[in-house]
Design brief:
Elements (H helix, E strand, L loop, with lengths): L9 H9 L14 H29 L5 H10 L4 E2 L4 E2 L1 H16 L6 H17 L8 H11 L9 H17 L5 H10 L7 H16 L5 H14 L5 H11 L7 H13 L6 H7 L2 H6 L1 E4 L8 E4 L2 H15 L5 H13 L3 H11 L13
Helix pairs in contact: 3-4, 4-6, 5-6, 5-7, 6-8, 7-9, 8-10, 9-10, 9-11, 10-12, 11-12, 12-13, 12-15, 15-17, 16-17
Length: 366
Amino acid sequence: MNDLTPLPMPSDISGAQNSTAAPERTLIEPPSVKLIVRLFLIPLLIVAAAVGVMFLVGLLAGKEPTFDEAIARLRSNPSGGRTAEYLIGPGAKQRYLDAKSLTDKMKSGMSTDEREKLTNDLIDLLEKHVQPDEGEVQHFVLLALGRVWQGSADTSAEANEARDKVVTTLTQYAGAPSVTTRKAAVLATVYLAGQPDAAKRVISTLISKLEDPKEDIDVRIAAATALGPLATPDDKAAIEALSSATRDTSAEDSELVWSASLSLAELNQPDVADTILKLLSRDELSKMQYFDRESDPKNPHLRNLSEQEQQRILINTMLGAQKLQVPTVQAKLKELTENDPSPRVRAAGMQILSGKPGDIDSGKPQ
């Protein structure tokens, strides 16, 4: 049997119609069932098995925990192995997921009773079960603690007592030996915005961190970032501390200057308008450099901003600049919203100008 019999040409067909004896053509056999199984079904089963195994591994080691499961596991599970700098192993991964789920829980809203219980649970975790050398686990717990009362208008004695515990704990950890712990605790205070009494209690701590030349630069940047949302235009000490930070001329401290300027914009201080306009300018951002201490901690160096970093700075600056009532700044916000090449920046601008920024992906705590 010849499986390569050519297809008939149109002339062959017309000739055959005029012929009295049409030639016989050999029929091509369909593929056998065995061949179909070998070519299609077996590979499909192999792929399905691999996916199933990966799914089961995900359930065992990377399953998104419920809130109660996360609290229970963080109290009981060991942290896993360590390298010189990072946590390793499935135990470490699960603790990371458990800690992250705590911050995610804050987004769904809670009753006052749930907030009070969670306050005590998180403080218990920090004091007895979570260690400062567990990568980002402790940091997530600190951020979750700061966020427990976010959006709550409850001013009952019980709620105020729980808030006091939050402030006391974050202030305590803002003085911890670990730089990353201090930074996380300071950033967690941002979530106290909208809670005037709690905010007032941490402002003096933030000012002292910002003004301390011996404090790590990342902690000072975090303090400058937090003062904008927490202070008010009448907080002279906060404004003076931020203004002093903007006068830092060291190239290595450029991020501190930017963060302090942004907080002053949030506090509607017109003297900072020129710096804000630079941070809203693509031309200026393309020339700016910052001191990169993270890519290679042993060899920090000045480098230009990447496109993603420029977008983050633009969005963060737009969020703060919306409160700066300077006509040139407001005009620049509108221009970026309409013309910036990044869809992400334009979308953020539309949300900001609408007065409903929501959970804009800015890189700052929301």
